[in-house]
Design goal:
The protein has 230 residues and is α/β, with parallel strands linked by helices. It contains 6 helices and 7 strands.
Length: 230
């Protein structure tokens, strides 16, 4: 049985990936902070999975990441999807130290700690998928904290890819353009959500990459125009 750990699975891209990867020979380890929303994700996949485990932990702190790791247990995982993220959208001069620390914690430190712990235990043929963003390639006004975190995870994951290549563990980076998820509900401004791609579109791309033979290099997936605006 395969074990897949997906962070940020409560809704949006994480939920779409969970639903796409559900299978009779798969145990889904689904992380989220919203208990009710994560329960809905689990309900949508449980009949199509061998097992589903819910992981309610705050990845903004190392202790929260440690608690998640303990809950996953000692059995190796075959897939790690780093999808959980925080978006602080405001002029850089208005970003508080707490907002900065939370962004770094969830968007950079948590993926680092999870990869550092799980990768050495993953069998050959396993994969790590990092859901990045066009914001990992281009800076945008009022998105400085978010862009910083995605740029950082981009550099880290590229280096990790080279270190894990000989171990036959794939590191796949996904760069979606603006995606119509609930993240936009809490952001001030008029966002053209009708023009955005869907979370299912991202999940389809992830599933395609994972379905490729190990000797086929699918390492970077760009969805949409990297020069486009948020």
């Amino acid at each position: 049985m395969k074990r897949y750990l997906i962070t940020g699975a409560s809704r949006g891209i994480g939920r779409a990936i969970s639903e796409k990867l559900a299978g009779e020979d798969v145990e889904l380890l689904l992380h989220g902070r919203d208990t009710i929303a994560l329960a809905e994700t689990c309900k949508s996949v449980e009949r199509r999975c061998a097992a589903v485990t819910t992981l309610i932990h705050d990845l903004a702190t190392p202790s929260g990441v440690s608690d998640l790791i303990c809950a996953v247990g000692d059995k190796p995982i075959d897939l790690l999807v780093n999808n959980a993220g925080i978006a602080v959208v405001k002029p850089f001069g208005e970003i508080t130290p707490v907002e900065w620390e939370q962004t770094v914690g969830v968007n950079i430190t948590a993926p680092f700690l999870l990869i550092q712990y799980f990768a050495p235990k993953m069998p050959p043929g396993s994969s790590i998928v990092n859901i990045l963003s066009i914001a990992a390639k281009t800076g945008y006004a009022n998105w400085s904290a978010y862009c910083m975190s995605k740029f950082a995870l981009e550099g880290f994951s590229q280096s990790v890819r080279e270190e894990l290549r000989d171990h036959k563990i794939r590191v796949i980076n996904v760069y979606p353009a603006a995606t119509n998820t609930e993240i936009w509900n809490g952001l001030a401004g008029n966002w053209p959500r009708e023009k955005m791609m869907s979370a299912t579109h991202v999940a389809d791309a992830v599933a395609f990459a994972l379905s490729q033979p190990s000797d086929v290099l699918v390492e970077n997936i760009t969805l949409g125009n990297l020069s486009g605006s948020l």
